[in-house]
Design a protein that fits this description.
The protein has 224 residues and is of the alpha+beta class. The protein has seven helices and eight strands. The chain is globular and about 65 Å long.
């Protein structure tokens, strides 16, 4: 669609200002302005539904795109509540997003030549990010528990549960491949994260399953 603009909230009179907006939204928009590849974001958000579209400034060297993620509830938040909600989203993400775009009245531009990618997964649980709720309190406590970790490490730690340690550590390794790490560094980072688990995988399982797949992708991408 060419030369159109849109907001995540409905306007009563067509004006894009806070006093004209009707509370009620069921999606979030993330503005990614370089620093991470689309393929890496796709891997990290694999469990969720999303639509990704590139912007006019996107290039093979600098990935610039937007991620639209639907939520499982329609929320009615006032201006300051919405800003706090979006700050919680940015804190949760394992990658950087433009934090200056977290306003209800934010205008988003369409791009006729955009590359579009979609995924059908789970709806994002909005309750995790609503200020002053038990789920948000639990999420923030998890961040405090893992405060010595990077955002990416926290992301995988929070998603590791019974029966999925191998899968999550593999995703972590594949993400590191996409991010340009060497095989030596990838092995060290996987081992380090595994050792932080209450029930870590044994070294043989990592070497014979996770690293085997990591090596394959690494050389497919032209690693040496």
């Amino acid at each position: 669609m060419k030369d159109h603009h849109w907001c995540s909230h409905h306007s009563l009179d067509g004006r894009r200002c806070e006093d004209s907006l009707t509370p009620g939204f069921n999606l979030i928009v993330l503005d990614i302005d370089g620093g991470i590849k689309i393929e890496t974001v796709e891997l990290l958000l694999k469990e969720y539904s999303y639509l990704i579209h590139t912007t006019k400034r996107h290039s093979a060297r600098e990935h610039r795109f937007r991620v639209i993620i639907p939520m499982n509830y329609i929320l009615k938040l006032h201006e300051e509540e919405f800003k706090e909600f979006m700050r919680n989203i940015y804190e949760w993400l394992p990658f950087d997003s433009d934090t200056d775009t977290g306003q209800r009245s934010r205008k988003w531009a369409t791009h006729e030549g955009a590359e579009i990618r979609t995924n059908a997964g789970e709806m994002l649980d909005a309750l995790l990010f609503i200020p002053r709720t038990s789920k948000n309190d639990e999420r923030q406590q998890m961040i405090r528990n893992y405060q010595d970790m990077s955002g990416v490490e926290r992301w995988f730690m929070s998603n590791i549960g019974d029966g999925n340690r191998n899968n999550q550590l593999l995703k972590y390794g594949l993400m590191l491949v996409d991010s340009g790490y060497s095989l030596v560094d990838i092995q060290l980072k996987i081992d380090n994260l595994n050792n932080k688990l209450s029930d870590p995988l044994n070294a043989d399982e990592i070497d014979h399953t996770i690293m085997k797949t990591v090596h394959k992708k690494y050389y497919q991408k032209g690693g040496i």
